[in-house]
Write a structure and sequence with these properties.
By secondary structure, this protein is an alpha+beta fold. Helix content is 17%, strand content 24%. It has a 5-stranded antiparallel β-sheet with strand order 5-9-6-7-8, with no helix packed on it. A two-stranded antiparallel sheet has the order 1-2. Strand 3 and strand 4 form a beta hairpin. The longest helix has 19 residues. It starts with 17 loop residues before the first strand and ends in a 13-residue tail after the last helix. The structure holds zinc ion. The site of zinc ion (ZN) has 7 residues, from helix 1.
């Protein structure tokens, strides 16, 4: 009795709503993910790639930098973004500050004087807040 050839499987036969990702992968629309970078639906592999890219960015933003390295400049200004600067002796003490590129010096915003050892970018809660329904509040002297 002749043996049937194994036909190459048509992926479309096993899916309710076959979709093709930009990368060429086929997936069922139900198994797709919404891309964080566009409003497209993407496959699992592309979603994982997006995630690890975002983690790398987040890691970079969480790093501590030596004082000889300067934070990103504020666009069209001669000073840097505001960052958190740590005290050499008490690493739990930190103050907000920035680098003045015009005068080539660090500026701290509080009234404490201390030897600075390292700095880090401030965390940005935008992504976190997207999934929350927080209510705002006002501080003393708010106007
Ligand atoms: Zn893909």
């Amino acid at each position: 009795m002749p043996k049937r050839f194994d036909c190459e499987e048509d992926p479309n036969e096993f899916m309710d709503m076959p979709c093709q990702c930009d990368c060429g992968n086929w997936f069922d629309l139900n198994d797709g993910y919404s891309s964080q970078n566009s409003n497209k639906v993407i496959c699992k592999e592309c979603k994982d790639a997006e995630l690890s890219e975002r983690n790398d960015e987040a890691k970079e933003k969480q790093s501590f930098f030596k004082m000889q390295r300067f934070p990103d400049k504020v666009k069209n200004e001669e000073f840097s973004k505001t960052v958190l600067i740590f005290d050499e002796n008490d690493n739990e003490f930190a103050d907000l500050g920035f680098y003045d590129f015009e005068k080539s010096e660090w500026v701290v915003l509080g009234d404490m004087s201390f030897k600075m050892i390292c700095w880090c970018y401030l965390p940005n809660p935008s992504d976190f807040l997207k999934t929350k329904n927080y209510k705002s509040d006002t501080h003393r002297g708010y106007c």
